[in-house]
Structure formats: C-alpha cells, structure tokens
Specification:
This protein is α+β, with helices and mostly antiparallel strands. It contains seven helices and five strands.
C-alpha cells in the first residue's frame, strides 16, 4: 500500500460497533481487524470517515472510537492522530490540502467550535462534546446549543 501510494479510508467507529468480529473471525484473525496504528506506523496515510448511514455521521464519535477502542487496544490512536484523519488527511485524500484541512490564511476557513477541548478532557468524554458552531468557507453555517 505504501509503495503504491494508496490512501486508506477508514471508518474508525467500527472499532466499537463491530462487536461480532471475534465471534466470526476467531481470536487470532480478529487482531488484524482495523489495524490503524500499524498502518500509520508503516507510513500509510489514513483518512477518516463515518460510513453514514450505517454509523453516525458525527466525526467526534469516530475520533472517540479511534482513541478509546478496547479490542486490539494496541491499535488505538492518539487524539491528535484521530483528529488528523478527519482534517489534514481527509483534505489530502481528496487532493484539497491547499484549500482545507488546516486553519491557515488563504484556505476555506471550514471549522467547528466545540464545547470542550478534546486534548484536555478524558478520552472517554470525547463522544459527549457538542458542536457549538460550524463555519464553512468563512460563513457561519450552524449554531448549536450546549
């Protein structure tokens, strides 16, 4: 995958919702399911998605799942890595890294304002974070409530 330049589009919420994996694959093979850390360590670029409507569209639930997964916990991502999958790496995967993915002068200014800082709260609380505001192209697109 790395040699070919393949970008792995992963749906991190499956790490918590696919409770059946070990029953169907067996313990030995189940450890190879969703090997996000291993893929990253080999230099493969991963971008995150939700697989909505199968899973919730919320990126925060995906980030939470990638950080707190209990099965194959050696494959957990850090908060920074999980956020990067949904921002910088997602923009890169769609060939839009010069337009979005980071907040920089000259980019689209797509961003959210969150109720809590995911870097400062306990990882298990990430799924409780609320989106207070969504900005798309520098314009307020959504105002949430706490």
């Amino acid at each position: 995958m790395k040699r070919s330049g393949v970008i792995a589009s992963v749906q991190h919420h499956f790490t918590v919702s696919d409770f059946w994996v070990e029953d169907r694959l067996g313990k030995e093979r189940a450890r190879w399911v969703y090997p996000f850390r291993s893929l990253m360590m080999t230099g493969i670029v991963l971008c995150g998605g939700s697989d909505c409507p199968v899973e919730s569209i919320s990126p925060l639930l995906g980030i939470w799942a990638a950080v707190v997964r209990q099965r194959n916990s050696e494959q957990c991502l850090t908060v920074e890595e999980a956020i990067r999958l949904n921002t910088v790496n997602a923009a890169y995967a769609s060939f839009e890294e010069n337009l979005k993915g980071t907040i920089e002068e000259g980019k689209l200014a797509d961003m959210v304002v969150l109720s809590d800082d995911p870097f400062k709260i306990k990882p298990e609380k990430i799924r409780d974070i609320k989106v207070l505001m969504t900005v798309v192209g520098g314009q307020t697109a959504h105002m949430g409530t706490v």
